[in-house]
Protein 1
Amino acid sequence: FIVIAAFLIMFGRRRDIVWTTSIPPVMQPFALRLASWLRGFTFVYFLQDIYPEIGLSLHMLKEGTFSRLLRTIDNWTLNHSDAIVTLSQDMAAVVRIRGSRPKRLVVINNFASITAQPKPKAARSGPA
């Protein structure tokens, strides 16, 4: 999928914006940013998870050369994106702590901590 998507961005019709998520991690955003950068397209990177940090915290990866390489590649993508969307202030903080400096960092929280209240019943109209 990554190769096909990058190919279509490189050789397909003009696009106003290229948007991708962090799934699959690191290489998809990198390849699509690189392709869109070469074509001069605006690029939005939607971080649903932050890699390799999530892999390290789940013990799927160990801190070492490979995780540092993934972080370096992802930082390049973050720093060369026109906008970064995260799901929380915590995620935005990780982006900043890493030393990444995206042009625009936006938080769109996907969790509502307020319990939904039932809608009030509509007032009856007409004679009583």
Note: The longest helix spans residues 65-79.
Protein 2
Amino acid sequence: MSKVADLISAMEKRYPNASAELWDAVGLVTGNPNNDVDTVLFTVDPSEAVIDQAKDLGAQMIIAHHPLILKGISSVAESTRKGQIISQLIKADIALFTRSE
């Protein structure tokens, strides 16, 4: 079984941060780097439907191509779409990692 940090390291080795666009938001969005991972869901966009699918599969990590948070936000209230997604990820203990390559 791998750790979130192990998978991040492998992704960063294959797709270095330096290769991302300067404006792109890549990296760990939610989750504990020390958590165990045996199932990863890859997706283009981190949406509510993707989180539901990750829960159904028992995935502990989602790796997404498009970032959930591209620029600064002032709230993660569940009354917003991004707040709902972040809340669902945290409650389900699912790590979200974004990588643009």
Note: The beta strands are 2-3, 27-30, 36-37, 40-43, 61-64, 95-98.
Protein 3
Amino acid sequence: MSIFLDLVQLFDICGTFQASSADCERGFSLMNAIKTKSRNRLEVFHLDQLMRIKSREKNGPIDLDKV
């Protein structure tokens, strides 16, 4: 029975791995588009907020009433 519990735990761990790094690459690309040489003093909070807005724009129009 212990072997099966170990296998279940292993499958749970393996299930959290991403199949590709496309999401990560997309995030870095978006960050580089926002944080240019002229905008190099953006703080982490502001950069995070801008990235969230830009990534939502790519998924379709933003409903400002919901925001």
Note: The mean pLDDT is 80.
